[in-house]
Write a structure and sequence with these properties.
Structural class: alpha/beta
Helix content: 40-55%
Order of helices and strands: EEEHEHEHEHEHHEHEHEHHHHH
Number of helices: 13
Number of domains: 1
CATH architecture: Alpha-Beta Barrel
Strand order of the largest sheet: 4-1-10-9-8-7-6-5
CATH superfamily: Aldolase class I
CATH class: Alpha Beta
Shape: globular
CATH topology: TIM Barrel
Length: about 290
């Protein structure tokens, strides 16, 4: 259902509020560069610190500005099942094409609890849903068995896999239905996950280099493995730079250095250290993102 380069878009702020015009501009920058989808209110969109009102407004703006040109997969996950259901229902009402649901964080549910959480959201919300496994951020790692069991639920259409475990990805691709999407959640592994049967990536790097990430995906699906591999290698330093501090600090700083947004975060996220900022600027200059 979902494939190619899907951007995990940032949420720009201005004077403590959503910078709606900059957000619209970013959406158009991404679509013009060829991305295959947009994810608002993911981890990269600072979802953890958005109020419910801000969360809903970001999704509303995104759906309206995209205008059906590419799919919108709205981040609606929570460590509260009731809250995840509320946010997912809003995403459907807003016109999003799907919802992205992170594993509940901090409370560390068991595998049984994870299954019941996702099954409850699926039963309550008739919208395509993508699981999101990122144990480095949440403290819980969804097992292959849990993923494959959830994949039997019709509205659960895929997973964003950010565990860094290619063996797990291989089992998930093998053991789920043919139309179940396995999307890379770690830019450095985008091509390797495609190699084991993944369908695309929900990318941080695409915020900065949407054309290059999209080109790699398009080359792969066109059967041009040599070009896809070449672009994969070209992107290695940028992928690393996007994580020299906690995401989304580097990517938002990069976009600020590129003149696309203000350099503003919601605490406890904060500005980069000066040393890392200089390293980031050097990488951006190497890639031609800044002069």
């Amino acid at each position: 259902m979902f494939s190619g380069a899907i951007v995990a878009i940032i949420t720009p702020f201005k004077d403590g509020k959503i910078d709606e015009q900059s957000f619209r501009n970013l959406i158009n920058f991404q679509i013009d560069a060829g991305v295959s989808g947009i994810v608002p209110c993911g981890t990269t969109g600072e979802s953890a610190t958005l109020t419910h009102e801000e969360h809903e407004r970001v999704i509303d703006i995104c759906v309206a500005e995209v205008g059906g040109r590419v799919p919108v997969i709205a981040g609606t996950g929570s460590n509260s099942t009731a809250e995840a259901i509320r946010l997912t229902r809003h995403a459907k009402e807003a016109g999003a094409d799907a919802a992205l649901l992170i594993t509940p964080y901090y409370n560390k549910p068991t595998q049984k609890g994870l299954y019941e959480h996702y099954a409850a959201v699926a039963a309550a919300c008739d919208i395509p849903q993508v699981l999101y496994n990122v144990p480095g951020r949440t403290g819980v790692n969804m097992s292959v068995e849990t993923i494959t069991a959830l994949a039997k639920i019709d509205v659960i259409v895929g997973i964003k896999e950010a565990s860094g475990d290619l063996v797990k990805c291989s089992y998930v691709v093998r053991d789920t239905r043919d139309d179940f999407c396995v999307l890379s959640g770690e830019d450095a592994l985008n091509l390797p996950i495609l190699c084991v049967g993944g369908t695309g990536a929900i990318s941080v790097t695409a915020n900065v280099l949407p054309g290059r990430v999209s080109a790699m995906m398009k080359a792969w699906f066109a059967g041009d493995e040599q070009t896809a591999r070449k672009i994969h290698f070209e992107l290695l330093e940028m992928n690393d730079a996007m994580f020299i501090e906690t995401n989304p600090i580097p990517v938002k700083t990069a976009l600020a250095l590129m003149g696309k947004v203000g350099e503003e975060f919601k605490l406890p996220l904060c500005a980069m250290t000066e040393g890392n900022r200089k390293k980031l600027a050097q990488v951006l200059e190497k890639y031609g993102c800044i002069g």
